[in-house]
Amino acid sequence: MDAEIYIDNNSFIHRIDPRVKIILFLLTFVAILLFQDPIWMLPITFLIVIQLAISGAFVNMRRIKYILIVLTVSSMILWNLFSSGDTKLFWIFSVESLTYAVARTMLMILMISAGMILITSTRNEELVNGMIRLGMPYRVGFAISTALRLVPTIVTSTITISQAQRSRGLDLESGNLLERLKKFLPLLVPVFISTIRSTNIFGMALESKGFGASEERTFYLDFEMKTSDYLVLAFGILFMLASIYFAIMGYGKIEGLVRA
Amino acid sequence: MKEVISMWKNTRMIILVALSAAIYAAFLIVFKGGIPIVPGVTEVRPANVFPPVFGLLFGPAGAWGSAIGNFIGDLFGGTLGVGSIFGFFGNFFLGFIPYKMWGATFGLVPKDDMSQTTNTFKKVLAFELVALIAAATCGIIIAWYLDLAAIVPFAFLSITITVNNFAAALILGPILLVLLYPRVKRWGLVWTDIMVKEDVAKGFGKTLGSILMIIGALGGLIVGILVAVGAADQTLYGFTGAQGQVAVWLSVLPFLLMIILASFMLSGREQFVEEEED
User: Fold this and answer.
1) Nearest to A158 among B27, B65, B77 (CB)
2) A107 and A144, same domain (yes or no)
3) Where are the beta strands (DSSP E) in chain B?
4) pLDDT digit string (tens) for A225-255?
5) Are A45 and A173 part of one and the same domain?
6) Taking CA atoms, what residue in B is nearest to A177?
7) Are B17 and A143 in contact (CB under 8 A)?
8) Which of A187, A194, B54, B223 could hold B20 in an S-S bridge, CB 3.0 to 4.6 Å?
């Protein structure tokens, strides 16, 4: 499995300052949650689709298409089960519940898309550096950055160990729950041991390079906010404020929807 | 809670945060489907054994590692969403509670042998107790928030997460700890070997703290489900009923506050006794 999601591109989205991208990501979450009616979610949907296209994140969305299909199908059925409305269609479906189900499905897909745009267009180092510059303590940022870097390596070694154990007769798919869970032990132990044993050497290497010697950090990777970054940020904030205004004014609700 | 902050000044603890996060995330990604308990509804994730084991062995580093690892799992798995925020806090407690409660398990872990392993039957029971409390706490934190945001019903999600978290820990946890503890101890990587006792919270009324933690976790789960099923017509294994109901989140809120209070009351310092005797 390839755990690398970042796509090396030079799109407009890629060039935006990571700090701006993180802030926009958080603003997007709030904007998505403001409305019940899918019609009112269309502007944010349009913006997200544009970003997916520009950043090339559609490639990664295709990689998780099965998760998206399962989410969409289950969401469309389940949200109709616990909402209803005056305009009956058939069985559990009414116009209002169907509209609401579409909105909740869009909410989930849009949130996943927003996350996908962020990590498709931002390198791990940029993401963590952006978080640090937004106020996250450096040591926390270092831990996250190291973990992000190690995940693909550990995923690969987990798959290698899994294949080695399978070739020696390990069958993870048969047996009852207890038996199947116990079969994971020959995978868990080697992965844990092979990763954790490097801690002391890793620590010595870091400290010999002066890690933690000074609270003041300098970064090889340097960002500077450009005019385009300020414009994008201003647009994001204005969009957010407009969304909040319309939500407060009572727009974006589904008339006749009963959530019970 | 002091050690949750003070651990960040120790390089090896920071590395343990990174490594445990990476291991947890890798297993979450590779075995994303898990083993179905109720097909299409809930499954056991083998990776969920790691947070309580990390918590006991690496202390606060294990707690942070579990939280960050779950977040990275969402990031790489393409499921980063609004649930990831409270997923972070829920998984933090999944690693935090085991090491905080280990020395306050009503005598199951003897004062003269606080080693973080399951080498006796009583210690196996202690592990299962702390793993259950941690699993339920994680379940109610995530479910409380997602019900509040009207995304997933409390009754369904709280029991699903609790079962998910606890099943793997129940079966694999004690075996894994017995196998891993001697090696981790030999490498000097058990958190009580790395941290200084003074950097760990003193705590107060630890036994009472432990009782409050149990009431907070299991009480929150049971009362929350009863209110959700009774007042909001939710069902345990289904998406029926209303969400975002004031009754549900108000009934669970005191239990969450109880868990936070218990976190300040519990210590972890008692696990340093062994080192002092050496």
Assistant:
1) B27
2) no
3) 35-38, 42-44
4) 899 999 999 999 999 999 999 999 888 888 7
5) no
6) B35
7) yes
8) B54
